[in-house]
Amino acid sequence: MLRPALAPLILAAVLAACPALAQTAPATPAPTPAYGRTITLAEAKTVVAAAEAEARKQGWTMVIVVVEPNGALVMSEKMDGTQYGSNDVARRKAETSANFRRPTSYFQEAVKGGTLNSIFSGAMAIEGGELLIIDGKIAGAVGASGGSGAQDGQVARAGVAALK
Predict the structure, then answer these.
(1) What is the b/e burial string over 19-53, where b = at least 16 CB atoms within 10 angstroms of the residue's CB?
(2) Predicted local confidence at residue 20, as pLDDT
(3) What domains sit in the chain, N to C, each tagged with a CATH number?
(4) Are 128 and 55 in contact (CB under 8 A)?
(5) pLDDT digits over 113-141, tens only?
(6) pLDDT band at 160 (very low <50, low <70, confident <90, very high)
(7) 3-state secondary structure labels for all residues of the chain
(8) Whole-prediction pTM value?
(9) Closest Cα partner for 93 from 154, 150, 152?
(10) Rounded alpha-carbon distances, angstroms, from residue 36 to 31, 45, 65, 137
């Protein structure tokens, strides 16, 4: 019987012995914008309303979350009928975008390409987290969850577009 205390050591040994798991860096990302002022509640409401309108137009139910540049919650909305698990996922997508200064789709593509670093850093590697840029700087981020990654991304980008 395997003792639970040995599991991390065995996992580390397996990973070290598997050259197929070697990671390559993704293509160099575009420079990330600097952090700026914090998004206001009024602006967050605009983002959420536009994202919700896109979700309703498509017939999807979503959780939509807006956070400040430091990841602190500004607003969260759960549409009726949305799965409960989407509350945490949408929040984590928004936090990932804000904390790492890039959309969560960046991490999703990195994982698809074999780079697993984002998983170990705690980044949410699923499309649906987008930066909210005001005056060329990060004012916060939006996260959407409830559909497929592509659907979540479409809804989050509709919220982003409302700020422009």
Answers:
(1) eeeeeeebeeeeeeeeebebbeeebbebbbebbbe
(2) 39
(3) 23-161 (3.30.450.150)
(4) no
(5) 998 887 788 899 999 999 999 999 999 99
(6) very high
(7) CCCHHHHHHHHHHHHHCCHHHCCCCCCCCCCCCCECCCCCHHHHHHHHHHHHHHHHHHCCCCEEEEECCCCCEEEEEECCCCCCCHHHHHHHHHHHHHHHCCCHHHHHHHHHCCCCHHHHHCCCCCCCEEEEEECCEEEEEEEEECCCHHHHHHHHHHHHHCCC
(8) 0.81
(9) 152
(10) 15, 19, 19, 5
The token duo for 88 is 């945490």
Q: Which residue has the tokens 């984002």?
A: 118
